[in-house]
Amino acid sequence: MASVPSLASTVQQRLAEGLSAALPEAGSADPLLRRSDRADFQANGILALAKQLKGNPRELATKVVEAIPANDVLKEIEVSGPGFLNITVSDAAIVETLAARAADARLGVPLNGSAGTTVIDYAQPNVAKEMHVGHLRSAVIGAAMVEILEFTGETVVRRHHIGDWGTQFGMLIQYLIEHPHELDHTSGDGAEVSGEEAMSNLNRLYKASRALFDSDEEFKTRARARVVDLQAGDEETLALWQRFVDESKIYFYSVFDKLDMDIRDPDVVGESGYNDMLQETCRLLEESGVAVRSEGALCVFFDDVKGPDGNPVPLIVQKSDGGFGYAATDLSAIRDRVRNLKATSLLYVVDARQSLHFKMVFETARRAGWLNDEVKAVQLAFGTVLGKDGKPFKTREGETVRLVDLLDEAIDRASAVVREKAQDLTEEEITERGAQVGIGAVKYADLSTSAARDYKFDLDQMVSLNGDTSVYLQYAYARIQSILRKAGDAKPVAHPELELAPSERALGLHLDGFGEVIAETAAEYAPHKLAAYLYQVASLYTTFYSECPVLKADTPEQVENRLFLCDVTARTLHRGMALLGIRTPERL
What are the Arginyl tRNA synthetase N-terminal domain coordinates in residue numbering (predicted)? Predict the structure, then answer.
């Protein structure tokens, strides 16, 4: 079905027609329409126009109003102040527009006409290392942007750039060669290995090999020689390296599964995936003059990047000993994503502390011609997760918090809330809903904050039924489902002929803005804007519910119309929350 124009765009159109009829000399002036507290909308564009045409703004505004033909959308236009237009739309227009949205599976949200291909680089854990709270935001924000961009019609390629290469693997592989059973599984009978077992194997091996590396010079020498074997592609060494990658994936996937995230094998392309391109990347940069040799290293210099001493700080693509840094891998990844994946946008969901690195990498890629006006790269930089005390989140012992412990605690807290409120849920349903509410709470707390800001991880607040939390939204959705179940033979039907109560109007007008919010969220890579919109939906619904009886409304038509409003609200909440990666249980 074709997209449904929002009331805002219809009003904008009518005003633009009135403007060009009354003031042809104004050309295609923008009425500058926005939502308003005084009426449904306010148009401020005539003030700037009056300045341009050297006229009296109130007189021009009156002229424009007179030029707008009578229609069934605009109920009233009032000239106010120095020349603002306060616009009220008809109740019928609100209901008819919502009915058109309700008839469409996409709720009338248009596809982006200029959609391209975006590669999203997110959820980047390290092989043989535990995932901690610092890994949470990249995964949650990235997964939401995947869903939102795909919904607008963008072709999205997921990339999980895992840390699976580097000198530490020499130490790990050498230790495994000398202690061959360290990665064996206790089950041994072909049963599926748990993520917890895989991680404890890796942890034990990492600690033991690190202790040996630090205390035994001969082992250190053997481990360093093993790095050379790994980089040279020695078969035995690569096979053992692969065991570490596979074991780590068992663990990663168990954590992502708990986060209710779909991570697929072909999307995991780690640092090692670009090894074969590194030499060529360096050659292309050096031959084009983008990178130059400095003290044996291959470097790219920037006028605006200087160290504390005032000297330029370069991006080092290849070290003086011939080794490659992160920059060589990141630049090779850009070449691959542009050339082979045909990306028009590259989106990196990476900690804000890496902003300088990515600024230099993107600028290097632009100078080399891999990025240009047709292909852009953006870092969606995110802030730090803080504890309740406002300091970086640590355990009492000062250790980094394990991600899996955090998620388990959120599920436990949420299960207690669900159990307390549960009327007719079985124990199995309480467990399932507890996970959906707990994981939803963690994701929403992250996504409802602007990514660039730090946010406090406060589980008491996150699982609260009051305030800006996902639990509040989930309960609003479950409440609507309960009403729809109790409606019996009464069905949701739109009745444009009915007069709307103020809270019905407010809810209807806000629901109509869903498509515009999706477009803005996608264009700005700003999931917090969608979260704020959905919270407002739930808040306006709560007011409507308390002021307007649904099943006990005065007439059968009013019952149907209010059920219709309930239904569109539920579908908007369900769709919007799904785009944020959050479940909406039918019963809570």
Answer: 9-89
Q: Tell me if 277 sits within 8 A of 157, measured CB to CB.
A: no
The domains spanning 7-89 and 403-579 adopt the same CATH topology: no
User: In the prediction, which pLDDT does 229 show?
Assistant: 92
The CATH number of domain 7-89 is 3.30.1360.70:
yes
Domain 403-579 CATH class label: mainly alpha
CB 83 within 8 A of CB 62: no
What 3-state class would DSSP assign to 250? helix
Which three-class secondary structure state does DSSP give residue 542? helix
Q: Is 197 exposed, middle or buried (0-12, 13-18, 19+ CB in 10 A)?
A: middle
Residue 423 three-state SS: coil
Please write the tens of the pLDDT for every residue from 255-298: 999 999 989 999 999 999 999 999 999 999 999 999 999 999 99
Cα diameter, the chain: 92
* Helix or strand holding residue 99 (H, E): helix 91-102
CA gap 293, 399 in Å, rounded: 41
Asked whether 494 and 96 are in contact (CB, 8 A), the reply is yes
The label of the residue with tokens 């739109």 reads 494
DSSP 372: -
**pLDDT for 424:** 82
With 70 as the cut, is the pLDDT of residue 169 above it? yes
